[in-house]
Amino acid sequence: MHDIRFIRENRDAFDAALARRGLAPIAAELIALDERRRALSTEAQVAQARRNEASKAIGAAKAAKDDATAATLMAEVAALKERMPAIEAEEKEAAARLKAALEVIPNLPADDVPYGTSEEGNVEETRWGTPRAFDFTPKEHADVAPPLGMDFETGTRLSGARFTFLRGDMARLHRALGQFMLDVQTREHGYEECNPPVLVKDEAMYGTDKLPKFAEDSFRTTDDRWLIPTSEVSLTASVMGELLGESALPLRLTALTLCFRSEAGAAGRDTRGFIRQHQFEKCELVSIVRPEDSEAEHQRMVRAAETILERLNLPYRKLLLCTGDMGFGARKTYDLEVWLPGQGAYREISSCSNTGAFQARRMNTRYRVAAEKKTEFVHTLNGSGLAVGRTLVAVLENYQNADGSVTVPEALLPYMGGVTRLEPKH
C-alpha cells in the first residue's frame, strides 16, 4: 500500500516510478480523491463543532427567555443532525474509493532495479557451478521420474490436473529435501522454525498484498478462509497490527508448508511434469527488519537460498529482475535459476524480494525507534529457501544415470535411511 502523503508531496517522482513499471500516471487522480475525502472530513468536523456550539447556545437562550433565538438554534441543530449522516457517508465512500485505487497499485521499484518490459530485461549477476557433462542424452524429469515413484496418473485421477502422487523412495527424497532445507536455514542462518496455519483470513492475505488483486490465483474455502499460496502470508502476517520493539528486530522466520495456487492464467505453462502444481511444498524465508537494514538483509536472504543449491551441487545463476518482471509487492527481487539438463535451460527455483514498507503499511506493523521515541513502519522481505518440488526436479535431472536410476546427492544421505540411489521399478 502506498502513502498518500508521500504521493501528495512527490507526485512527479511517484508517476515517474510507475512509468518504470510500464504504468500510466495516476498521482493527480489519487490526489483528487484524497482532496475530496479531506474536504468531506473537514466539513464533518465543522458541522459537528457547530452542532455542539449551537446546542450549548440553546440552553443559554432558553435561560435568557430568548425564545426566538432558541428556536432558530434548534432548527439549525436539527438541520445539522439531518445533514451529518450524509456527510459521513460521503466521506466514507470517498475514503473507500481512495483505498480501492491505492491497493491495486504495485510497489515502486528501487532506484537500482533495471528498467525492462519483460523477463528479457533481467540482468544476470552471477553463475555458480559447471553443468554436468553427460555421456548420454539426459532426459527431462517427467520422463525419468515415473518409474522411480512419481505417479502423475494417480494424482490426476484423485484430484485432477497438476496434482501428483509420490511413492516410496521418491516420496522420501522429497521429504529429505524439505528437512535438509529447514536444518540449514535454522542451524546456519538463524531463522526461527515455525509451523503456521495454511488456512488464513482475508486480513492476512490483504496485508501481504495477495488481495484484492490476486484473489483468482488462490483457493478459497466455503467458510471464507484462504489456502495459503505461500507461507510468506502466514509468517509475515504473524506481526500484523503489532508495534514491535527495536530490540526485537530483525525477526527471521522459516517454515516448511504445503502451498496452494490455482495457477489462473497459467494454462499451457509447464503442464507436463512436476514444476507447476496446484499443491506443493516450500521452505519459506521471511525477515522483518528496520528500514536501514533491509538492503543488507536482502543480500543475506539470497545467500541463504544459494547455500542450499551449492550444498546439493546444483548449478545455478542469480538474476536481478527488471521493473517489468517484478512481482506486485516487490521493490527489488533476485531470482535464482537452477540448471535443468533435460530441458537444457535455467529455470526459476527461488525468488527473494524486498517489499520495503509496502506490506507493513497494509498490515499496520510498526516498530518503536528507541533513540527517537517515535514509530516507523518495518520493512518485510520474503524468499524461497527453496521450492521443494522444483528442487526435486533439479536433483532428478542433474543426478540421473543412463540406466534410469538417480543418485542421491551426498548432502541428503543422512536423511535417506541408507538409500543411495532411486532405482526404476518396471
State the gist of this model.
39% of the residues lie in helices and 20% in strands. The protein has 426 residues and is of the alpha+beta class.
Protein model, in words:
The chain is an alpha+beta fold. Helices cover 39% and strands 20% of the residues. It is built from twelve helices and 18 strands. An eight-stranded mixed beta sheet has the order 1-11-12-13-16-10-9-4. A three-stranded antiparallel beta sheet has the order 5-7-6. Strand 12 and strand 13 (345-354) form a beta hairpin. Helix 3 (27-63) packs antiparallel against helix 4 (67-102). The protein is elongated and about 105 Å long. The two termini are 54 Å apart.
Fold topology:
Blueprint lengths: L3 H6 L1 H10 L6 H37 L3 H36 L20 E6 L12 H4 L5 E2 H8 L5 E2 L1 H20 L4 E2 L5 E2 L1 H6 L11 E2 L5 E2 L4 H6 L5 E3 L5 E10 L18 E11 L4 H18 L4 E5 L11 E9 L4 E10 L3 H6 L2 E4 L4 E4 L1 E9 H11 L7 E2 L13 E2 L4
Parallel strand pairs: 4-9, 8-14
Antiparallel strand pairs: 1-11, 2-3, 5-7, 6-7, 9-10, 10-16, 11-12, 12-13, 13-16, 14-15, 17-18
